């Protein structure tokens, strides 16, 4: 009996990482970042698009920060793995829009993490000021 339980434990240990690695990343739900911002994403539709809301904890404004709508798409929504995605946020408290692109990763323990890069474009009064409008 002792050797059977040992083999079962070994089999579970060997299958565990594979099961987590095969797990599909799911963008739907509540996400928080290390700065305290959070976003909520809806389920993907059949085309891979989603919507949601973003509440930033960091902004260069004296205005009240408001929850802002977002729209996005995930690449190959039916595929397994760690998908790429993109979304835009239309800020409700500023004359700016931010575009995010990234990828969802699942670690060996099944924890999902979003790695993203973003560009923020502010409205400026003239084309002459365009050079300072993007961060």
TrEMBL record:
<comment type="function">
    <text>Forms a strong non-covalent specific complex with biotin.</text>
</comment>
<keyword id="KW-0964">Secreted</keyword>
<feature type="signal peptide">
    <location>
        <begin position="1"/>
        <end position="22"/>
    </location>
</feature>
<dbReference type="GO" id="GO:0009374">
    <property type="term" value="F:biotin binding"/>
</dbReference>
<keyword id="KW-0732">Signal</keyword>
<dbReference type="Pfam" id="PF01382">
    <property type="entry name" value="Avidin"/>
</dbReference>
<keyword id="KW-1015">Disulfide bond</keyword>
<comment type="subunit">
    <text>Homotetramer.</text>
</comment>
<dbReference type="GO" id="GO:0005576">
    <property type="term" value="C:extracellular region"/>
</dbReference>
<keyword id="KW-0325">Glycoprotein</keyword>
<dbReference type="InterPro" id="IPR005469">
    <property type="entry name" value="Avidin"/>
</dbReference>
<dbReference type="InterPro" id="IPR051764">
    <property type="entry name" value="Avidin/Streptavidin-rel"/>
</dbReference>
<feature type="disulfide bond">
    <location>
        <begin position="25"/>
        <end position="104"/>
    </location>
</feature>
<comment type="similarity">
    <text>Belongs to the avidin/streptavidin family.</text>
</comment>
<keyword id="KW-0092">Biotin</keyword>
<dbReference type="InterPro" id="IPR005468">
    <property type="entry name" value="Avidin/str"/>
</dbReference>
<protein>
    <recommendedName>
        <fullName>Avidin</fullName>
    </recommendedName>
</protein>
<dbReference type="InterPro" id="IPR036896">
    <property type="entry name" value="Avidin-like_sf"/>
</dbReference>
């Amino acid at each position: 009996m002792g050797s059977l339980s040992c083999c079962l434990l070994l089999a579970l240990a060997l299958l565990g990482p594979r099961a987590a690695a095969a797990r599909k990343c799911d963008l739907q739900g509540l996400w928080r970042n290390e700065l305290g911002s959070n976003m909520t994403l809806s389920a993907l539709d059949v085309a891979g698009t989603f919507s949601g809301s973003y509440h930033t904890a960091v902004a260069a404004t004296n205005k009240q920060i408001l929850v802002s709508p977002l729209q996005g798409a995930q690449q190959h929504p039916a595929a397994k793995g760690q998908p790429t995605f993109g979304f835009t946020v239309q800020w409700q408290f500023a004359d700016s829009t931010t575009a995010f692109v990234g990828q969802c990763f699942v670690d060996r323990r099944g924890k999902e993490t979003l790695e993203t890069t973003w560009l923020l474009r502010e409205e400026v009064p003239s084309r002459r000021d365009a050079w300072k409008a993007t961060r």
